[in-house]
Amino acid sequence: MRVKWVEKNKMSKGRRVSIILVLGTLIAVGPFSIDAYLPAFKQIAGEFKVDTSAIGITLTTYFIGIGLGQLAYGPLMDRFGRRKPLMFGLVLYIVTSLLSAYAWDVTSLAILRFFTALGACAGMVASKAIVRDLFDEEKVADVLSTLMLIMGIAPIIAPTIGGFVIEYYHWEMIFYGLAGFATLMLLNVIFVLPESSKPNRATSLHPIPVLREYIAIYKHRDFFVFATARGFVIGLLLGYVAAAPFIFMDYFDMSQENFAYIFGSNAAGLIAGSQLNRLALTRFTTFQITYVVSLLLVLITGFGFIYVWNFTPVFWVVYPTLFTMMMCIGFQNPNVTALALNPFTKRAGSASAFVGAVSMIFGSIASWYVSRFVTVSLFPLFAMLSGGALLAHIAVEYFRMNYAQGYAFAKAYLRHPYKFKKREDQLSDF
């Protein structure tokens, strides 16, 4: 089959919409694979004869796989284009999802989830890289917010679907369904998604040059600050996801069905935040929004920390607090992602992969922490959430104090936080 190419600013409106829909669904494969089986934790734990918290290790291995996999896909997509590595990842995802239905204990499921994640992260890397390929700098955050809208549907419908499966079938059917979903996405990639980047055979796949390139990317001032801030923000999100079964099904004693509804409605905050962000971007700079929302995250998570420290937590206080946090994350994620990727053109694939990997490293740590310490109380959870939000704000504040004064706040007409003195492709020493 002949691959159709699409270049920046040469898309019809209909073509643009179809590409965004495919990219949004691809980036949703990763979170959908998590949220769909959260309601099955109790059933899986019962069949494997372990505590519900022990199933949390399958989330940790999944996040590790997402993080490591993205580091591999970055140079692969720069060297071979976006489509071929993406199709390989989807095939790997389909095979390992089918095998997960035959897992016989926690260890086997955790290993299979690791390899499933290696497949899932291909869509996450490709989506961000293709957006960076096809859209102007000032539109990247806006398009990423649209992808967040599509991706945000996943945590809303996935637990509901998972809860339905658990109610009428068995947990294995969830993994059959995930394999079927990925098969449909593979067909969309083959027949709908064009190639957006010509292969660069000069891109080395040798571990040492790849490592050096990632080090050079991370040392870039802007990438370091905003990728680190994004890592803490995603850590909040994935820490909450890992803790959600305990919070609602164990601590607040909800049924699997009610958990699906509550988790889904809470996750709707991601959609609300991402779409409000699109409106905010018409009036404020990307950095202005990032700065204000980072402050709000500190205040919200700090309130939750103080509340669970001094009072016995009740659902109607914890739930709105988490909902508001999720809304702020919906705001923050597309903005810090755009700010981290903005300096890069030729290495958009590697930069996209690395920003995702950094986030998943933080997410893996958060999920391990939750499975280890969030077992009888909500205090360790909110201690982690408030600490992560504070560290994310410190990174953003550091940038504001040292580099953004006179731009982000004095020149509100700029859509971006500051004017780049040099672009990545102009740097002779990069």
Describe what you observe in this structure.
The two termini are 37 Å apart. The longest helix is centred in the middle third of the chain and has 32 residues, at 137-168. The protein has 14 helices and no strands. The chain is 76% helix and 0% strand. With 430 residues, it is mostly helical. It has one domain: Growth Hormone, Chain: A (Up-down Bundle), CATH 1.20.1250. The radius of gyration is 21 Å and the shape is globular. Helix 1 runs antiparallel to helix 7, helix 9 runs antiparallel to helix 12 and helix 9 runs parallel beside helix 13. Residues 406-430 have low confidence and may be disordered.
Please mark out the parts with pLDDT under 50 across 5 or more consecutive residues, or reply none. Answer: 406-430
The CATH class turns out to be Mainly Alpha
The helix fraction, in percent, is: over 70%
> Main beta sheet, described?
none
First and last CA, distance: 37 Å
Tell me what portion of residues adopts beta-strand conformation.
under 5%
Compute the number of strand runs.
0
Radius of gyration: 21 Å
Average of the residue pLDDT scores: 81
